Amino acid sequence: MLQNYFVYILTNQYRTTLYIGITNNLQKRLDQHYFDSQNAKKSFAGKYNCIYLIYYEGFDSSTIAIAREKELKKWRREKKNNLISEFNPKWETLNNEVI
C-alpha cells in the first residue's frame, strides 16, 4: 500500500539536536529545511541546522502519522536515540534515499 504521510527525524552535523516532523512530501520538506538553514533560520530546524535525515516511517493515514509524531516528541532522548539506532545503526544521512 502507498504511504502518503511520513514522520521523520532530522539532526544537525554533530548529531546533537533532533527535530521530529510530519509531511506528505518528504523530499520537498527536506528541501524546505535546507533552504531555511541557509537563509531565514526562522524554524527550529533551520536555526539549529537540522538538515540531515536519519529516520523516517510511512503511514497511510494523516491521523495515525500525527499521533505517532506526538508520541515520539514526548519520548526522552535516550528512547529516541534507540529508535534511530535500530533503524539506522550508524546514523547515516538518508537524504539521498528518499524520492
TrEMBL record:
Domain (GIY-YIG) ranges: 3-82
- The domain of life is Bacteria
Q: Which CDD domains match?
A: GIY-YIG_unchar_3
Record family assignment: Belongs to the UPF0213 family.
Q: What is this protein called?
A: GIY-YIG nuclease family protein
Which source organism? Winogradskyella litoriviva
